[in-house]
Automatic annotation (TrEMBL):
Residues 265-371 form the PH domain. One of its GO terms (molecular function) is GTPase activator activity. It comes from the Eukaryota. Residues 373-569 form the Rho-GAP domain. Residues 83-114, 225-252 form a coiled coil. PROSITE patterns: PH_DOMAIN, RHOGAP. This is Rho GTPase-activating protein 42. It comes from Umbra pygmaea. Residues 618-667 have a biased composition (Low complexity). PANTHER family: OLIGOPHRENIN 1, RHO GTPASE-ACTIVATING PROTEIN 42.
Length: 697
């Protein structure tokens, strides 16, 4: 199984399960850090010691063979499977090349050592700093809380209010440190999928130049390298879109009241202090408690910090609640107390909550009063739109204008329009006093405004176009190991949509298929359109980190529908297709692309190129390298199959997105042997990320 997701809302409870999940991520990140140091050390040995090259290369190869990627979530996309398998393929390639080694490796430091060291220092180092801050604030907050809860209720109100205010401030600082740490550690876990593999990929490209006897192996590496770049670029795109949504969720969680309960398996849960009567006085010990309202089951589990006679009492105690009464302030020296009676014990159990609002929530949960279980900040929505006649007219008119002006515009549907103009368009069309006849003047509304308005309408539907009801079924279909079943299952699920939803989806996907047909000029391949329209057409009803991690599968569903548009909407589904079942417990690791089984074809030398991203896009998108040029297939269908070693369409020399860098001096000696022809389209990255990718020419 992969790493568990870390929910931002769990940081408010700070439960032992949350700490254990966080520890899993820390262990995995430390393992990655050690592995990167291992790679850097082995790479330096490879560069500096020609006579020890064989020994260093074997260790380097073995390190790659032994490492396993652990992804967040219970399933992996085909791209992630290929990325995880890539290290083993690199290892096999190094073993084959070592048999024919003849020349010294040069100029490998910039390709391998520096990017990995930068990732380790900047990304993993930032997580370590976040952990230090998180541990510091944890100790500070709980220490202050212990002192605060021990205050006598007989103190002056001004002193108590000042103490309450201080605890509230420290609590907020602790929550902020916790949220930032959770966000950063999951971000680095996702980043390593591409920022870790790309330097290795670039290093291998440079290595071929200095192995004349290994030239035949370099020919095999070409198509695999391109396929892996597609996987990396798709994974990067999915990461960018997911990261934006997760960051928004984190901000909404941060701005919400930490005492408000989020939906979960228990009606109420959190830390309580239990009064334990002793022979001489009494003691208060911290327990993690849960309460389930329907069964009235109350569970207490001693905190790991609570020790008696140096033995941690970790066994949970389960009781059936009989009654719950708030403790009078003047009847006990502690604040925020309440009493419960349980069936299994005689007498009362006195509990102390962490605050007055926390006690109120416990009392409401236990005495049957209606509690507040949802986060208002999470449920706030922008103005909703509806799937009515006005919406159909608007979508058809937008598509008509886009197709009339031509679909060769660079970044169509990716580059957004001016927000004020888009809002004015939406108000004009969907206002209550809007005229029944819809007229959009092409001279007034430019393409960016029209495409942004179309996406905004679909994004704001009260129920997403592919419905909340079928959301999980579509996700399960995309997670299937069998690419053929994915298409058949999505086909069947589309016909379960309401008629109006299916009609709108038909109109939209036919248009998107036409847009992808111009991908050679607009760069909007099926894969790129999936990244843009996946979160627009599909939304999870709950906003959690786990749901955000499924955005990549939403993109795959949209890719499948676009690719198979004519079949899905032109033919009825196969009635014998079984509906998707809940996902397996074992992650899928099948049908990864393999370099070792590829056919040998002649390949030309490569030239490093510097590729930069477009700065003004509203949604991150890959370049034309997301799918083979001239093809409407996306990685949702062909990335899990063996890629044939077919000739590739050369990149046009006048492409504005990528400019070749000067030829390195170590390539100029062989430049006269073979003419350089582009065999791989460029890949763009965001300017804030690593902009340097090497491409085979």
């Amino acid at each position: 199984m992969g790493l568990p997701t870390l929910e931002f809302s769990d940081s408010f409870l700070d439960s032992p399960e949350f700490r254990e999940r966080l520890r899993c991520h820390e262990i995995e990140l430390e393992r990655t850090n050690r592995f990167i140091k291992h790679i850097i050390k082995d790479g330096n040995m490879l560069i500096s010691a020609f006579r020890g090259l064989s020994h260093a290369a074997e260790r380097f190869s073995q390190s790659l063979q032994d490492f396993q990627f652990e992804c967040i979530g219970d399933a992996e996309t085909d791209d992630e499977i290929n990325i995880a398998q890539s290290l083993k393929e690199f290892s096999q390639l190094l073993n084959n090349m070592e048999e024919e080694r003849s020349r010294l490796i040069q100029n490998a430091d910039d390709l391998l050592i520096s990017p990995l060291e930068k990732f380790r220092i900047e990304q993993i180092g930032a997580v370590k700093e976040g952990k230090k801050q998180f541990d510091k604030e944890t100790e500070k907050y709980y220490s202050l809380l212990e002192k605060h809860l021990s205050l006598s209720s007989r103190k002056k109100d001004s002193s108590l209010q000042e103490a309450d205010s201080q605890v509230s401030r420290e609590q907020q600082v602790f929550y902020d440190a916790s949220l930032q740490y959770i966000f950063k550690i999951q971000e680095v876990q996702e980043r390593k999928k591409f920022e870790f593999v790309e330097p290795l990929l670039a290093f291998l490209q440079g290595l071929f130049t200095f192995y004349h006897e290994g030239y035949e192996l370099a020919q095999e590496f070409g198509p695999y390298k391109q396929q892996l770049q597609y996987n990396l670029q798709n994974t990067r795109n999915n990461f960018e879109s997911t990261r934006v949504e997760v960051e928004r969720l984190m901000k909404r969680i941060r701005s919400s009241d930490p005492d408000i309960r989020v939906p979960g398996p228990f009606t109420m849960e959190g830390y309580l202090y239990i009064q334990e009567k002793r022979a001489l006085g009494s003691a208060w010990t911290k327990h993690y408690c849960t309460f389930e309202k329907v069964s009235k089951m109350f569970t207490m589990r001693s905190s790991a910090e609570s020790k008696q006679n140096s033995v941690v009492n970790s066994g949970p105690e389960v009781f059936r609640l009989r009654s719950c009464i708030r403790r009078k302030t003047d009847s006990i020296d502690k604040r925020f107390c309440f009493d419960i009676e349980v069936v299994e014990r005689h007498g009362i159990i006195t509990l102390q909550a962490l605050s007055e609002s926390n006690r109120r929530l416990w009392l409401e949960a236990m005495d049957g009063k209606e509690p507040i279980y949802t986060l208002p900040a999470l449920l706030s929505k922008k103005e909703e739109t509806f799937l009515n006649e006005t919406g159909f007219r608007f979508v058809k008119r937008c598509i008509e204008l886009v197709e009339m002006r031509g679909m060769s515009t660079l970044g169509l549907y990716r580059i957004g329009g001016v927000s004020s103009k888009v809002q004015r368009l939406m108000t004009m069309v969907f206002a209550s006093k809007a005229p029944a006849s819809l007229h959009l003047d092409p001279d007034v509304w430019d393409n960016k405004t029209i495409t942004s308005g179309l996406k905004n309408y679909l994004r704001c539907l009260a129920d997403p176009l592919m419905t909340y009801r079928l959301h999980n079924d579509f996700i399960l279909a995309a997670k299937s190991d069998d690419p053929v079943y994915r298409v058949r299952a999505v086909h069947a699920l589309v016909y379960k949509l309401p008629d109006r939803n299916k009609d709108m989806l038909n109109i939209l996907t036919k248009h998107l298929l036409a847009v992808s047909g111009h991908s050679a000029t607009n760069l909007m391949t099926v894969s790129n359109l999936g990244v843009i329209f996946g979160p627009t057409l599909m939304r999870s009803q709950e906003e959690t980190v786990a749901a955000m991690m499924n955005i990549k599968f939403q993109n795959i569903v949209v890719e499948i529908i676009i690719e198979n548009c004519q079949k899905i909407f032109g033919e009825p589904p196969d009635p014998s297709v079984p509906l998707p079942q809940p996902h397996r417990t074992v992650p899928r690791r099948s049908k990864a692309i393999c370099l070792s089984s590829g056919n040998r074809k002649s390949r030309l030398l490569y030239r490093p190129t510097l590729c930069l991203a477009d700065n003004d896009s509203d949604t991150f998108s890959s370049s034309s390298s997301s799918t083979p040029t001239g093809s409407q297939e996306s990685l949702s269908s062909h990335s899990s199959e063996q890629t044939p070693c077919s000739p590739l369409t050369p990149l046009h020399s006048s492409s504005p997105l990528c400019s070749p860098s000067p030829i390195p001096s170590y390539l100029s000696r062989r430049e006269d042997r073979t003419p350089t022809v582009s065999t791989s389209p460029p890949s763009r990255t965001h300017l804030s990320e690593k902009p340097l990718l090497l491409h085979l020419l």
